[in-house]
Amino acid sequence: MKIKLFLIAFAITALTSNTFAGLKGSENQTGGDHPDMAWWQEARFGMFIHWGVYSIPGRGEWLMYQEHVPISDYAKLADQFNPHDFNPKEWVAKAKEAGMKYVILTTRHHDGFCLFDSKVSGFTSVKTGAKRDLVKEFADACHAAGMRMGFYYSLMDWHFPGVLPLGEPVSKVAMKSIADQAYAQVHELLSNYGKVDILWYDGMNPNDTLAWHSGELMAMARKLQPDILINDRSGLPGDFSTPENVVAAQSRPWESCFCMNRTWGYARYDRNYKPVHELLRLLTLCASQRGNFLLNVSPDGEGTIPVEQVEILTALGKWMKVNGKAIYGAAPSPIIAANLGMATRVGDKVYLMIQRWPGSTVPLAWCGSKVKSACLLSTGQYARIEQQGDRVWLHDMPEYPADPYLNVIELTFEGAPRSSEPAYR
Ligand code: GLC
């Protein structure tokens, strides 16, 4: 029950954290003007990577808490953690192939295990089994490939004596120490690995911006990395919101993160993968509402991304290669086409994302400007256009859907696309 309440409180925090009414005094700040988010708004699609010592047993990243493992037992996992197959170049290449434009790695999850070298913790991949700074290797791979890179960092640290169980108050002394540790580690992460594009906080428990010095953290991050984008999970609005496993459009920049199956961290037997057409629907749903889609992969304890996940990435990449121009930089379309699926707008083009293929004639309505051309991206075929007022028929399209997942038709208009439907004019 307690866990449930905590999780609910947590979810609500995550979803509403752009409107923290309860912030006090100097903590009520985002750390200055928002940096330039143009690249992020263009990107629309990123990769999330949940990876840590919890990936060895393969029962998800909450294992330490959910199985009530004592700190000393859990620490043994760190000695076993020696990921021979870890090849961040390959991870980054897979993200690139999938059409993803940025990658966020869990540099430290709630269990407190750091994949980086830290002067203020012994629980790191450098000081235990692996004896490697895995974040450094990851950062180098991203920089070499020109891939935008983000660091996930959990504020809460279950490895710290006095922090568990959740839901009970953390003593003042422990709170000060973990907040100091967080400050020092964020400083390390933003000082030692070159350019960091995104700082992705999580795990703000207790939910108290004063206790975590969220304002100071924000100011420090902006000072060390002036262009960095910061999410909303340190209790301050930051630059973007982060709905989790749900598409929830907002009036500010937002990014929905999703599991491919049902867990973030590697779960050996979790085969509940979302089908490719569903992942494309989610990506499109985000893009059509000016949101980003952050899709998670969960490498195993050796650093191998499960084959099912690689297959999904490959399929997404194939689709993105042909249809990506409907996603990158996408914004809401004035023509909705709800009879067919969804639509995005990029510049002066409208992309119909057809989930329910209608056959060789594609009927469209509420077009307030003249449709000049319509091209089915997967085959390059142009439709014969018939337009009567705001009703349009795209003839000579294939009878059967050409793409097995999601078919995209690019519409070019005379002038800018406009809706004739009063609600969208
Ligand atoms: C939640 C979970 C965590 C996961 C994260 C991803 O905060 O506690 O396990 O990393 O969401 O958004």
Topology record:
Elements: H1 2-16, H2 38-43, E1 45-49, H3 63-66, H4 71-80, H5 88-97, E2 102-108, H6 134-145, E3 148-154, H7 172-191, E4 198-202, H8 209-212, H9 214-224, E5 229-230, E6 255-258, H10 276-287, E7 292-297, H11 307-323, E8 331-332, E9 341-346, E10 349-354, E11 362-364, E12 371-376, E13 381-382, E14 384-388, E15 391-395, E16 407-413
Parallel strand pairs: 1-2, 1-7, 2-3, 3-4, 4-5, 6-7
Antiparallel strand pairs: 8-9, 9-10, 10-16, 11-15, 12-13, 12-16, 14-15
Helix pairs in contact: 5-6, 5-11, 7-9
This protein binds alpha-D-glucopyranose.
Alpha-D-glucopyranose is lined by residues 50, 61-62, 202-203, 244, 257, 264.
Question: How would you describe the overall organization of this protein?
Answer:
The chain is elongated. It is built from eleven helices and 16 strands. Helix 5 crosses helix 11. The protein has 425 residues and is α/β, with parallel strands linked by helices. The strands form three sheets. A seven-stranded parallel sheet has the order 5-4-3-2-1-7-6. The protein has a six-stranded antiparallel sheet with strand order 8-9-10-16-12-13, with helices on one face. Residues 1-32 have low confidence and may be disordered. The termini are far apart. It has two domains: 2-326, TIM Barrel; 333-413, Golgi alpha-mannosidase II (Immunoglobulin-like), CATH 2.60.40.1180. The protein has helices at residues 2-16, 38-43, 63-66, 71-80, 88-97, 134-145, 172-191, 209-212, 214-224, 276-287, 307-323, and strands at 45-49, 102-108, 148-154, 198-202, 229-230, 255-258, 292-297, 331-332, 341-346, 349-354, 362-364, 371-376, 381-382, 384-388, 391-395, 407-413. Bound molecules: alpha-D-glucopyranose. Alpha-D-glucopyranose (GLC) binds at residues 50, 61-62, 202-203, 244, 257, 264.
